[in-house]
Amino acid sequence: MTYQHLGLLEQPYDSLYLIPVGAVLHVPSNYPSSPPLLRRIANVLKELLSTREQQDHELISRFTKLPSHTFPLAIVSEQQAYMYAIRPDYFLWKKQKPELTLTPDSHHFDTRNLYSLSDNQLRNYFHDLLDSYVFAAQLPTLSRRQWKEKARSAYSQNPFIRLAAEKQDVIKAVEITNRSMLMGVLNPPEDVAFWRHRVEIVLRPYRALPPDATYSACNHPIQVTIDKESPMLHIYCETCNYAYKYDPFEDRVVLQEKINLAQAQKRILTIERQFNALAEGTPKVLAALRKLQQIQRWYVDKEFPEHAGDAHRLIRSLQGATFPIAPVEPTLLSLQHVKLATIDSLRFVQPYLDMSKQQLDQQLEKEQREAFQYQTEDTEKAVRFSTKGYTLYEEEVDVIEDYLARDEQMTFHLLIQVLKGEATSKVRTLNLHRSPIFGLLRPWPKKLIPQAIKSFW
């Protein structure tokens, strides 16, 4: 039975309406000829169609504009017929675009390999496909653009998406704060660890959503097709690489993950309350942050010399730091706006917690006078190494070498961190942040410190 016999001369099966389509897509040479499979498909469809109600037959016939009690099947052939089921989307959109035609590369084919299916698999496959046709036939006549708009609107109205939008400030604050260096100074540490563990659980369904579609539908181009597994529309955004289902009869969206909404509402409230409790339980940190915020506002537009005392070091440490507009509060929504350039600022500020601006001004002036005096004295000191305006003196090398003589475990990389004054977890674990050489070359750019070390080590 040739392609011409099947497609053009006659319809040999009562239950099938064969539609010839152009040239072959790709027919492997080892595939068997198609008439045996056609007979199997015809028998399966005859059985399935006989069990359908008359209403279904009428719906499918009006939808496809084909004779009643028949089902369409595409035949693509060159030397032998090769069959593809036609997705109901083709007939759905053809209502709005009468010129829409099937081509060998058409995305309206369901490319399931029908040759590989057993009789039971074939029966289940066409049973589901018939359900999809009945579903599509009942859809209101709307353009594809209108369906996209309705799906987007329903996505934004999904209860979980609405919850995410309502709690957007909390969700973002949790994400920011969870990565903040402040988490390392809140107490007790075991409660901080527990809170972080809960965050991973609570935020997982929000993180599963695309960044552009977490709080409302994205604005990217989307594809609308008939879902293969349920009587719904399948919505897919290639940019987000995310899909969801839309029920056009109930005007609702079904997300990939089933969410217990009451549980999600309770959990997001709980992690905010737990963080607030952690912050309230660390009053010393809060006091330090408030003072840092105040000092930054006092000297926001002023510049200070590099080589000076502790008060200058404190103010320089605030370069690049950010704080909320309002005074810092022990809450998640307030502390999310705190970003320190270095956690050492909390330590640097301790001697100045009770100082007024006038007192701190006096301290800064004193340090500047002392710095000038030391600078005068430095001109008489023996220099070991100098580069780009930074000088390492022999007496500083003596201090470093004296310490290294007692610490044989010190590595080159670790020494750079210690001299720069970086209180990393390893530095703190080894108690090196209390060593006499910690921060000795703090004013130096880190990339220059290795050159200084190589001058004596």
UniProtKB/TrEMBL annotation:
GO terms for molecular function: 3'-5' DNA helicase activity. It holds the Pfam family RQC. Transmembrane segments: none annotated. GO terms for biological process: DNA repair; DNA replication. Residues 407-453 form the RQC domain. This is RQC domain-containing protein.
